[in-house]
Amino acid sequence: xxxxxxxxxxxxxxxxFTGLSAALELKRAGIDFLVLEARDRAGGRVxxxxxxxGERIDSGAQFLCEDMPELMALARERGKTFVKTxxxxxxxxxxxxxxxxxxxxxxxxxAMRERMNRIEPDDPAIAGLSVADxxxxxxxxxxxxxxxxxxxxxLWCLALDKVPLWHLIDNDRRITNxxxxxxxxxxxxxxxxxxxLADDLGEQLRLNDPVTRIEHGxxxxxxxxxxxxxEARAVLVAxxxxxxxxxxxxxxxxxxxxxxxxxxxxxxxxxxxxxxARPFWREQGLSGMVMWRDLPGxxxxxxxxxxxxxxxxxxxxxxxxxxxxxLGETALRAEVTARLVDALGxxxxxxxxxxxxDWTHDRWSGGAYGxxxxxxxxxxxxxxxxxxxxxxxxxxxxxxPSFPGYVEGAIVAGRGAARKLATELKSATANRAxxx
Length: 436
Fold this sequence. Notes:
Number of helices: 14
Helix content: 25-40%
Mean pLDDT: 95
Largest sheet: 8 strands, mixed
């Protein structure tokens, strides 16, 4: 083990988009920093891999839309190519139902979501209620309720009985896109954008360097990793809350802060990309979007980069992901294939490649797109974490004022935390400076 000790102004723990964005903001402010990342790559829940055809594909977060201004601007600035998601054609619900009924069901489910979001999160009438409790009380049709459950468990990847209603309302209100969030992907992959940001950091980013301990006091912090120690004026923990809660702090964090970090749980998702020789669903007048009403959390959409790279992305979210991952890779593939054939016909079985990424128990970032609060009483958890315990500070997409749980939210959260930290450090330096 290397016992060397380094010094800097700020240590950033984690090189997901939150940490990367914070680092570049500190760089612009002239604050010295070091980013420590446990993985062998930057990006966090953004990831790319090679499928069986040798193609580089997004195996993590992938989609973006025009209503995500920071991410869109960043992708344009870095010269990325936008691939518009095909939505032309009919949306399939399975088990099948007549088109008119399917349209009514979709609109009814969206109306339920809008009705939910009109409730004030601090309304005493919903105190102690989970999303499942609220859903049970609604008078909507069975179809609409099933569609709502599938939508929510697919997006947030946790069972509805675990999620406090007030938290989902507060979370969902910050997701403000009016165009579909699946509007675009990047031909070069979202991971390529993370790689670009990482390249800008040069030697100020350390990969394969997991943090093992954070000692903190009035004089600053001492961050230990498997490769050495870094002393700094402050640390910014840029990790999902459930992951940050696993870090070893000395002394222990204040009880309220430790409790606030401990009330989060990662969702569960398995992401699958299926490659085909042609987009056969378009030949049938279908968009490629499929929602399984009898299997909440299962959803598919067209992810073709062009006509020669026909593909469907299948998301298995929430309890469904936890259940199906226990089947093993071969049986899970058979299960997904059977569901695609049921919904889209026999051509769905004629696959060129089947790539699956199980995020359900990821070591460094949890199991899905984001963490959620699972304690109905933890109404101050986000505020408590954002206040931190200086010189220990926290930032995460989950805590973002906009698009929590998305790459957009991570960028906003990272930049905001870094600006606040830079201001505090500069102010402290000015106050220590000798007066003439």
